[in-house]
Amino acid sequence: MEQRKESTIINVRDLNLFYGEKQALFGVDLAIQKKEVTALIGPSGCGKSTFLRTLNRMNDLIDGVKITGDIVIDHENIYKSNDVIKLRTKVGMVFQKPNLFPMSIYDNVAYGPRMQGIKNKRELNIIVEDSLRSAAIWDEVKDRLKTSALGLSGGQQQRVCIARAIAMKPDIILMDEPTSALDPISTLKIEELITNMKENYTIVIVTHNMQQAARISDKTAFFLNGEVVEYDDTDNIFSIPQDQRTEDYVTGRFG
Ligand SMILES: Nc1ncnc2c1ncn2[C@@H]1O[C@H](COP(=O)(O)OP(=O)(O)OP(=O)(O)O)[C@@H](O)[C@H]1O
Questions:
Q1: CB burial readout 142-179, b (16+ within 10 A) else e
Q2: Which residue range or ranges hold the ABC transporter domain (predicted)?
Q3: CA nearest ligand 1 atom 9, residue
Q4: For 87-116, how does the pLDDT look when each residue is reduced to its tens digit (9 = 90+)?
Q5: What is the pLDDT of residues 193-241, one digit of tens each?
Q6: Is residue 172 one of the residues assigned to a domain?
């Protein structure tokens, strides 16, 4: 098999995060590789979502949050730049529950590009179609683009959320437990989609589902009490973990 050349797209160094007095992340160092899927695993409350949100500065919206350390994305220190809009264009996000706007499928996907100033109808049509195709939902919705997105099933809505993220032409897509609210068939569809998406995107995904991490990710980071205990190729994390705490977690002994 052809050896994939690794190249770091997100470099996190000595990252600490405080919610007021309470420290939630402790000295996190992580180098996330381009066009790979990186899974963040660990027991509830260990800081996975907090960490994910630091990557596109979503924590900035929370009062009393203090962050130290560096996150460099594509050679730019994101906490030293003030262009959060540019950052969130480059680093898109998909949440646990589908959060489509109460408008048509078309308008949901076209929303971001329109906000960026694209008005040309033909251009928007192409972006909407390409994004829905890339999110593996085009065939299911192509005849009902002008109907409400909220009339779709949960699994379909989540794929439209992914299309909405893709429409912004990001490099990186963050996913916070994107399948936890979905049935097993919809979950498999999203997993297959994520696997295909890494040809074009870097994906960082929080998951509680160990099998999911093992199935879809290239690298896995195991978080515990706000620290990264172990970060390695997913195969290693699940077959020959170096730290006893990782082994206990992946074999289901706690969490
Ligand atoms: N807005 C907030 N204000 C104060 N503390 C918070 C806030 N959000 C999270 N925390 C705390 O930070 C710690 C890490 O939470 P976080 O949600 O990042 O963990 P998690 O690993 O994603 O958990 P889960 O798997 O349950 O979603 C927890 O102790 C949590 O209570």
A1: eeebeeebeebeebbbbbbbbbbbbbbbbbbbbbbbbb
A2: 10-250
A3: 50
A4: 999 999 999 999 999 999 999 999 999 999
A5: 999 999 999 999 999 999 999 999 999 999 999 999 999 999 999 999 9
A6: yes
- Which residues lie closer than 8 Å to 191 by C-beta, 6 or more apart? 179, 212, 215, 216
CA 74 – ligand 1 centroid, Å: 27
pLDDT of residue 255: 64
Q: In this structure, what DSSP letter does residue 104 have?
A: B
CA 53, 58, 62, 65 torsion: positive or negative?
positive
Tell me the C-alpha distance between 13 and 10, whole Å. Answer: 10
- What distances in angstroms separate CA 178 from CA 116, 130, 158, 173, one per listed residue? 26, 21, 7, 11
Residue range of the domain that includes 69: 8-250
Q: Is 123 inside a domain boundary?
A: yes
CATH number for 33: 3.40.50.300
Q: How far is the CA of 19 from the centre of ligand 1 (A)?
A: 9
